[in-house]
Write a structure and sequence with these properties.
254 residues; alpha/beta; Rossmann fold; 7 helices; 7 strands
Length: 254
């Protein structure tokens, strides 16, 4: 049986990914900031979906938590075949670029970019020690954002952090290809999660106005299915590439 570690797996996109991987036969290690007893809806969803999982609480922004979570995952599962770097945060305050504070910038970058950088390093070292499983030693999937390329001046720190994740995808893809560890990126668009609850009406109107060629909200399962495909052995001559899961939002139209 293959094992996957999903950061930020207790809700939203991460939970959707965990459910899809679990349905494909993976045992899933969920890394979440809160302990399992604080997330009854997530655990109920995982159990209803028949996912075999372990729950590991920790802060992706803390080096000691990253090391502990990886150690616990290996101890309990044996090997890690898939890492999904999904955990991420928005700025505590949406504001104009001219009003951004260093504190908010550091907060977002520490989790979204630095956390992803060093979690990948830890897990990649573990994967390099493992034998081949199928046609590769491991798969790493980074969940970036359409904001890797689309500017949004009221959340500049988030855009910068996700652009950094895109470069991390290419860097690690280059470094790990000789080890038969392949790295991919998914750039979600507007996905229906609690993270964007406050702007739900705004984006619903944009969808109705035709901003997205596929005129509906994206769902966590849409991202999860893309992750599941990349984790298969069907893309072993591809690495460092990305998939837009955004309803066609990336298409430049006249």
């Amino acid at each position: 049986m293959k094992n996957a570690l999903v950061t930020g797996g207790s809700r939203g996109i991460g939970l959707g990914i965990a459910k899809e991987l679990g349905a494909s036969g993976y045992r899933v290690a969920i890394m979440a900031t809160r302990p399992e007893e604080c997330c009854p809806q997530a655990t109920e969803a995982l159990r209803d979906a028949g996912v075999e999982y372990i729950w590991l609480a920790g802060d992706l922004g803390r080096s000691e938590d990253r090391a502990r979570v990886v150690s616990q995952a290996v101890e309990q599962l044996g090997e890690i075949h898939v890492l999904v770097n999904n955990a991420g945060v928005m700025s505590p305050v949406r504001c104009d670029l001219m009003d951004m504070t260093e504190e908010n910038y550091d907060y977002v970058m520490n989790i979204n970019t630095k956390g992803t950088m060093f979690m990948t390093q830890l897990v990649a070292r573990q994967m390099m020690r493992q034998p081949l499983c199928g046609r590769k030693r491991g798969t790493i999937v980074n969940i970036a954002s359409c904001n890797s390329r689309v500017a949004s001046i009221k959340r500049g720190e988030y855009c910068v952090s996700k652009a950094g994740v895109s470069m991390l995808t290419e860097l690690y893809a280059d470094r790990l290809a000789p080890e038969q560890i392949y790295v991919y990126e998914i750039r979600p668009g507007i996905i229906k999660t609690d993270m964007n609850l406050k702007v739900r009406d705004f984006y619903t109107q944009k969808i109705e106005e035709g901003l997205f060629p596929i005129a509906r909200w994206g769902l966590p399962e849409d991202v999860g299915r893309a992750v599941r495909a990349l984790c298969s052995d069907d893309f072993c001559y591809s690495t460092g590439t990305y998939i837009d899961v955004d309803g066609g939002f990336h298409i430049r139209r006249l």
